[in-house]
Design a protein that fits this description.
The complex is a heterodimer of chains A (305) and B (310). Helix content of chain A is 69%, strand content 0%. Chain A has eleven helices and no strands. Chain A is flat, with a radius of gyration of 25 Å. Chain B is 75% helix and 0% strand. Chain B is built from 13 helices and no strands. Chain B is flat. Classes of the chains: A mainly alpha (305), B mainly alpha (310). The interface between A and B is large, with 43 and 48 residues.
Chain lengths: 305, 310
């Protein structure tokens, strides 16, 4: 024991302690924060690997996504300057994937933003006011979560056509209950805190308290869920377009590219595998990022050590 | 208890009725004409009118709805346009396939996810657990249609050991089951890990440990028991969702279940078939949910049905 005290590093301070730096490094809290750091880093790298090329799709030196070359059909990856190979019409697969990704990502981001707004508004109203708004909103979310989701989405897309706004809206509607449920539970806790009572004593209106004081306190945690929902949105959109209910213009999205490629799996494995890998990389990245951020040990506010 | 059951069933029936009615109206508002899908692209206007009359689609929406409701009371959901058979029978013929797939997927999921989740909780935040953790995140990041197609490419095309889309042999069940299970295992094991970690940190466990209760008992009796309620709920919800047709997987593997039937019914605008599918699968899903709810008092004696279910 005395030996460990003697070897205590200066970073721990001169205070005598049996806790060595090695112990600290192996402590649960340290490991947890290390794990979350790794997740955040890997997640950010995976996300960037997909997002950056997708954003730069029209600037990168790749062939036009709609340029067909029937003499160069279904070339394997890395052949003749086609990094991902070509599809059944001789179009460059990488270019298709990146341009399709612009559509997929736009839909995902918009859908998540809309569902985030709906979810936070309805969820905080339900949590803060209670009573009948809570009953109505909670039941609504419950009923929707019990519905056969994909089937309903297919139905609505069949009803209004597979256009970009429709698909975006449909996915947004599909995802809002998750945000609402979390926001509601956060607001329920926040509502009982002294500052809310203080604000009420000062004569602030209830809506004012909710918007100015309660929502800013929960919006950070709620936005974390929204990030995780982005992964869901991308998966949902690709499933829809796989089933033929995806947007066709301006570019076919990821799911559609894969379902087209499925006819050739006996001869051309890359038509399915590579676009799918891009989806997996993006969704994995976003999920890791969200998970890591959630696990990150929070700084205690107002409690200085 | 009886009151609880009656109330629950009543609520569920109402929800199903509203869902089915919504679907009934929605499909008829949708663009796309079932008569055209049925009579073919070269049908004349007279032929189309004839087909519409035959299907009863020329009558006002309310009247169609009334006819539907009268049939519903007698257990008659109308005749499927494309199969020319009672819609309910068409769905019932497909149901065993979906049931087989759903049951085998949920079994595999439970058998793998429970030990995995427990292991991850006990080894929480070690290096190996981090690897498993990232792997489960990857599992829930893979779209099922992609996993399915890649598995097909590997095990049916490159190394042809398993049938690609056959449902005649039990071997045909393997790939679809794995495809569904990968995502479900990821979701369930992560949920279980989270619940177990919370319970491991709870004071009651420290007390039990200080009294000298063995670690294995602490894990499987103490923490597991408390973690089981949310996990069983999730398993039930997942299973119920699978009964609604594992649409994507069924399409990938050409599995003749309810899911691929729905896609076909939507394409051909087969109204009675769409409505029948929604009705039957929602009834089944509700029954599963109810069974899960009835399990709660067994898992956790503090749960009193009827009082808790406010």
């Amino acid at each position: 024991m005395t030996a460990t005290v003697a070897t205590t590093s200066p970073s721990v301070g001169a205070r005598p302690s049996a806790v060595t730096p090695r112990d600290l490094a192996r402590a649960g809290a340290t490991r947890r924060s290390r794990g979350s750091k790794i997740k955040i880093t890997v997640g950010a790298i995976c996300t960037a690997l997909v997002v950056v090329p997708v954003i730069l799709a029209s600037v990168l030196p790749i062939p036009d996504p709609s340029a067909q070359d029937l003499s160069r059909r279904r070339l394997p990856p890395l052949a003749e300057g086609h990094l991902f190979g070509t599809d059944a019409l001789g179009r460059d697969l990488l270019s298709l994937v990146l341009h399709g990704g612009q559509v997929s990502l736009t839909i995902g981001l918009l859908a998540v933003t809309i569902s985030g707004i709906i979810g936070v508004v309805l969820g905080s109203a339900a949590g803060f006011f209670g009573g009948w708004p809570d009953a109505v909103i909670s039941r609504l979310a419950e009923v929707q979560m019990a519905l056969p989701l994909l089937m309903m989405l297919l139905l609505v897309v069949a009803l209004f056509g597979a256009s970009l706004p429709v698909i975006t809206f449909v996915i947004a509607i599909a995802l809002w209950p998750e945000v609402a449920r979390l926001t509601r539970s956060l607001v329920l806790v926040e509502r009982e805190k002294p500052y809310v009572a203080a604000a009420r004593v000062l004569g602030l209106h209830r809506v004012q308290i909710l918007i100015r004081h309660v929502v800013p306190n929960i919006v950070k945690q709620a936005s974390l869920v929204v990030l995780l929902l982005l992964a869901q949105a991308v998966l949902l959109e690709s499933a829809l377009s796989y089933l033929g209910a995806g947007p066709e213009r301006p570019f076919a999205t990821w799911g559609r590219i894969i379902s087209d490629g499925q006819n050739y799996i006996t001869t051309s494995w890359w038509l399915v595998t590579l676009p799918g890998l891009v989806i997996v990389l993006l969704v994995l990245g976003v999920n890791l990022l969200g998970d890591g951020l959630r696990d990150r040990p929070r700084r205690r506010k107002g409690k200085k050590a | 208890m009886t009151r609880y059951l009656v109330k629950r069933l009543g609520q569920s029936l109402l929800a199903i009725f509203l869902t089915v009615s919504t679907v009934f109206v929605l499909v008829r508002l949708a663009p796309g004409d079932p008569a055209k899908a049925y009579a073919g692209p070269f049908a004349t206007t007279e032929q189309l009118d004839e087909v519409r009359r035959q299907f009863g689609l020329d009558r006002p929406l309310l009247e169609q709805y009334w006819v539907f409701l009268k049939g519903l009371v007698h257990g008659d959901l109308g005749t499927s346009f494309s199969f020319q058979a009672p819609a309910i029978n068409v769905v019932m013929d497909r149901l065993p396939y979906t049931l087989t797939l759903a049951v085998s997927a949920i079994l595999v999921t439970t058998v793998v996810a429970v030990p995995l989740g427990v292991w991850m909780a006990r080894r929480a935040d070690t290096r190996r657990e981090l690897g498993a953790n990232v792997a489960t995140i990857a599992g829930q990041s893979m779209p099922e249609f992609w996993t399915g197609t890649v598995l097909l490419t590997i095990f049916a095309v490159l190394i042809p050991v398993l049938p690609a889309s056959s449902f005649a042999t039990w071997g045909g069940l393997v790939l679809p089951t794995i495809t569904i299970a990968i995502m479900q295992i990821a979701l369930i094991s992560r949920l279980l890990r989270r619940e177990m970690v919370t319970n491991f940190a709870a004071p009651y466990l420290t007390v039990a440990r200080s009294r000298g209760v063995r670690e294995s008992l602490l894990t499987w009796r103490y923490a597991m028991r408390n973690a089981s309620v949310p996990v069983v709920t999730a398993l039930g919800t997942r299973f119920a969702a699978m009964l609604n047709g594992v649409v994507v997987v069924e399409v990938v593997f050409a599995w003749p279940g309810v899911g691929s039937l729905v896609v076909r019914a939507l394409e051909t605008r087969d109204y009675p078939l769409i409505v029948a599918t929604v009705l039957i699968t929602s009834v089944l899903a509700v029954l599963v949910q109810l069974l899960v709810d009835l399990c709660y008092p067994l898992l956790d004696p503090r749960v009193r049905l009827g009082k808790a279910a406010a």
